Amino acid sequence: MKDKNSGKNFLFREEKEEKFLVDPYGRKVTGLRISITDRCNLSCMYCHNEGADCCACGPVGKEMSPELICNIIREAAKFGVRKVKFSGGEPLFRKDFEDILACLPPLKEVSATTNGVMLEKRAKTLKSAGLDRVNISLDTLDPEKYERITGAPPGTLEKVIRGIDSAVKAGLTPVKLNMVLLKGINENEIDAMMDFIRPYKGKVILQLIELMNIDPELSKFTIDSKALEKNLEERASEVMVRHLHHRKKYVIDGVEVEFVRPMDNSEFCAHCSRLRVTADGKFKPCLLVHDNLVDIGEAKSPEEIEKLLRLAVSRRKPYYIPIIEVKRLEKAKE
Ligand SMILES: Nc1nc2c(ncn2[C@@H]2O[C@H](COP(=O)(O)OP(=O)(O)OP(=O)(O)O)[C@@H](O)[C@H]2O)c(=O)[nH]1
Ligand code: SF4
Ligand code: SF4
Description:
By secondary structure, the chain is of the alpha/beta class. Helices cover about 30% and strands about 20% of the residues. It has ten helices and 15 strands. It has helices at about 65-75, 95-100, 125-130, 145-150, 155-170, 190-195, 225-235, 265-270, 300-315, 325-334; strands at about 10-15, 20, 30, 30-35, 85, 110-115, 135, 175-180, 205-210, 240, 250, 255-260, 275, 280-285, 295. Strands 10-11-12-9-8-7-6-5-4-13-14-15 form a twelve-stranded mixed sheet, covered by helices on one side. A three-stranded antiparallel sheet has the order 1-2-3. Helix 2 links the parallel strand 5 (about 85) and strand 6. Helix 1 (about 65-75) crosses helix 9. The longest helix is centred in the middle third of the chain and has 15 residues, at about 155-170. The protein starts with 11 loop residues before the first strand and ends with a helix. The structure holds guanosine-5'-triphosphate (GTP) and iron/sulfur cluster (2 copies).
């Protein structure tokens, strides 16, 4: 079958007798990123709520049942999806998160991204239910700045730090600390953050995240990512490149630092291997595109889910594409 925009073929590709979902741009889908709720107890200044139209602090829509979530994952797993990331809003708002984890098929990695506020008491049960690791948002170690960035009441930063400790103790490792870089607010705290995680001896990784300034109001907080990348490279004793998004990982003074640089980065999109699912049950082919969602609705049978999965994959397109590719596509249309 041919994609009408790109003229490229898309179908299932057989590899070592395993079927994979491959989009019209040749990107294999090996992961699902599932939002299980839009609810959240914070209101971070940069929140994109996983690309949902509503804000995490706005009204809450319907949420998928554990059964539907597991059916979707089971179907995707038949086609080579091996990694699942649960996100929100704040996924720990789901009291039945452990039930969701308990019904999953065998996977290579099950992780969640959380703000960590409610993690202290849940870390052990989540691990026992099948969660492998967590990413925890932590942009600053300064309580006042934390409250300014997240809108949280006093005392919240301490809860998050206790959450990180519990996650490490429960074995939800490596724990990644997600630090969104904000010019004039926390850009000078990278070294302090590295000092904070060093005692965890490799069980905690620092993940620096370029601000997605999709809202013009946020532009003033954008840092110079290229300069930062150069600086990290100069300081690193080791540099690695992940397949996912071709993200760079650095080892600096014994600490692992990963840099997530999605903006205007065609390399990032070219290596995007995850399909998203929204909290209200829609496949979302791209975080930044809002008009090509595929409603899973009450689809229950494996056949129905497979059909919708294929449709969503056929709609996947890199958001940022190299200018040379844009020209090639324009020429192909002529
Ligand atoms: N544009 C874009 N940004 C992404 C994508 N995936 C992750 N990000 C950014 O990276 C941030 C951190 O993502 P996480 O949820 O912690 O997970 P991750 O680091 O992508 O995944 P793992 O490395 O598997 O833990 C997100 O809040 C986004 O800002 C993506 O597919 N597209
Ligand atoms: S914790 Fe996450 S979902 Fe909640 S407001 Fe902050 S960025 Fe948005
Ligand atoms: S195509 Fe690019 S912007 Fe869209 S989800 Fe993938 S990495 Fe993110």
